[in-house]
Design brief:
Nucleotidyltransferase, domain 5; 14 helices; 3 domains; 54% helix; alpha/beta
Length: 346
């Protein structure tokens, strides 16, 4: 309950500046300031009101780490705002950064401020390292595909991904007599070798910090989930209890349909925000689904049934949703993986 003496702070955060709006519990605006993104400036502006500030709302943008961590270290209660869920009043003719800052404080006073999860700082560092590793994996894959396409275009030969990753300089020299073509091939080979070295180094560093955590060994029992995927699940999920239900978790993993329908009509009225959720978990469960369909008889049978009534990607997504739901129960209830429950016989 907001007391009369309490103050609420809304911060509209941008890449190079932020706007601070301070108001009381009657929505009376006390002050506002536009500051450059320097923590000492922000703390100095809040210092005269520190004893009265009840809580602060910070917009969750790509650069929220420094400001949230700094405010928490200074003893403030901080809420990380979920921007897509913040709905402005309809009919407004003009808004600006000052209005947005005060609007966040207003929603906080009403108790309807949509908030996100403030990931623990120490574990966040490991998570970001794993994300960087994932970026390098994507980059390596693009070079592998580029080299495969190049060889196929020039020679008509089909090379496997494994073969491309293990190609040597002398093999490229034997493939092409022209020095220009050799150079093109060698550039990709050298890049793939370098990225493989970096990826291996990063994966080891991340794995050493994660493999002793709860649920890691248990997640490895899921068909299609190896060390890389298990590590990513643990680091991206954080505290599984922040998801009230398996449906919330599966939605966060982007494994549910994004559409709006009316009166059971086949033609949909539109689609919701497909990008809501975690892109890394979306990748994890789609990778797990592809491997499960390949190696699990039960998963393949379920996949084939889904294929009869839909698109191939929807069938894979259905398998991915099943695996995501199973992993939720495994982490929440500390239970073993049971394929019979996930993919029952028809």
């Amino acid at each position: 309950m907001c007391k009369m003496k309490d103050l609420l702070v809304g911060i509209d955060l941008h890449s190079n500046n932020h706007v601070v709006g301070i108001q009381d519990c009657n929505d009376r605006r006390i002050t506002h300031k536009k500051l450059s993104n320097r923590l000492p400036l922000l703390l100095d502006s809040l210092k005269p009101y520190k004893d009265r500030i009840r809580e602060i709302a910070v917009e969750s943008t790509f650069n929220w780490y420094w400001i949230v961590d700094g405010l928490l270290d200074s003893g403030y209660k901080v809420n990380l705002v979920h921007p897509p869920k913040v709905i402005q009043y309809s009919g407004l003719k003009h808004t600006d950064d000052k209005h947005d800052a005060f609007f966040l404080a207003h929603l906080m006073r009403l108790g309807i401020l949509p908030t996100g999860y403030i990931y623990p700082r120490e574990l966040r560092k490991v998570r970001d390292l794993n994300r960087k590793c994932r970026r390098f994996i994507e980059e390596r894959t693009s070079h592998i595909l580029s080299l495969k396409s190049f060889v196929n275009r020039q020679l008509g030969n089909q090379l496997s991904g494994y073969k491309v990753k293990t190609l040597k300089e002398e093999e490229i020299a034997k493939m092409f007599s022209d020095t220009n073509l050799q150079t093109i091939g060698l550039v990709d080979v050298h890049t793939i070798q370098y990225l493989s070295h970096v990826i291996k180094k990063l994966e080891k560093k991340v794995l050493d910090q994660v493999k002793l955590r709860d649920y890691f060994e248990r997640l490895l029992t899921i068909t299609g989930v190896g060390k890389t995927l298990a590590v990513t699940i643990l680091l991206e999920v954080g505290d599984i209890k922040r998801f009230p239900s398996p449906g919330d978790y599966v939605s966060y993993c982007r494994q549910v349909k994004s559409k709006r329908e009316s009166n059971k009509k086949k033609k949909k009225k539109g689609s919701n925000n497909k990008k809501n959720g975690n892109t890394y978990l979306s990748w994890v469960y789609m990778e797990a689904a592809c491997k499960a369909v390949r190696y699990s008889t039960r998963a393949r049978a379920y996949f084939n049934r889904k294929m009869k009534s839909g698109h191939i990607m929807l069938a894979y997504k259905s398998v991915a949703a099943k695996i995501a739901r199973a992993s939720y129960y495994m982490m929440r209830d500390n239970v073993d993986y049971n394929e019979d429950l996930i993919f029952p016989k028809p």
